[in-house]
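Private note to self, pasted from the team thread so I don't lose it. Backbone tokens:
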């Protein structure tokens, strides 16, 4: 008997494109979603498994509430070497959680890996297809600048670290447009789930 496993769909999109909303739509349709960001928050939150290692590597950046994000951010922001050291701590732990998630959902026809930096960090080789969530640059800018504490400078800095949206669209197997109404976006997600599970 061949080893059956779910079809793994990688979900990604640049900041402010509506990826979280689309991930929630997949979940609403009964598709298990592994949220890489949420996994990192768990590992770095109060009592998180990575706190001792992060504190040893970056003294003074953790406390009772877990990682002090502004302090850790200040320690690695604009410092590629420090960022690499942090990634060497975080990535293997997230990878282990993703493996467990895959094992727990081995019987499902379709699962989603929600990975914000899928193209930037090389995660696309581990998925069967990639769906990119996208909207116009105007809509993206408007959404991001509406976030608390966000400035045009910060937004530009974040964009520089991300693969451009046009390139993501070009490399995607599927694109979900969030520049339309929520209902239209939801229909697009439903059609995608149906087409990926219809052959099961």
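Design output:
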């Amino acid at each position: 008997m061949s080893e059956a496993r779910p079809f793994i769909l990688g979900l990604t999109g640049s900041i402010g494109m509506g990826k979280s909303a689309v991930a929630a739509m997949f979940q609403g349709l009964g598709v298990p979603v592994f949220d890489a960001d949420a996994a990192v928050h768990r590992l770095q939150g109060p009592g998180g498994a990575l706190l001792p290692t992060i504190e040893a590597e970056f003294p003074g950046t953790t406390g009772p509430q877990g990682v002090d994000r502004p302090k850790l951010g200040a320690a690695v922001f604009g410092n590629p070497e420090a960022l690499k050291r942090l990634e060497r701590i975080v990535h293997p732990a997230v990878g282990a959680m993703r493996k467990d998630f895959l094992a727990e959902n081995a019987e499902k026809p379709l699962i989603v890996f929600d990975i914000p930096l899928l193209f930037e960090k090389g995660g696309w080789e581990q998925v069967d297809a990639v769906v990119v969530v996208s909207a116009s640059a105007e809509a993206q800018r408007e959404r991001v600048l509406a976030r608390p504490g966000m400035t045009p400078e910060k937004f530009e800095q974040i964009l520089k670290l991300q693969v451009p949206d046009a390139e993501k669209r070009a490399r995607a197997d599927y694109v979900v447009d969030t520049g339309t109404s929520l209902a239209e976006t939801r229909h697009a997600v439903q059609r995608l789930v149906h087409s990926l599970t219809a052959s099961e």
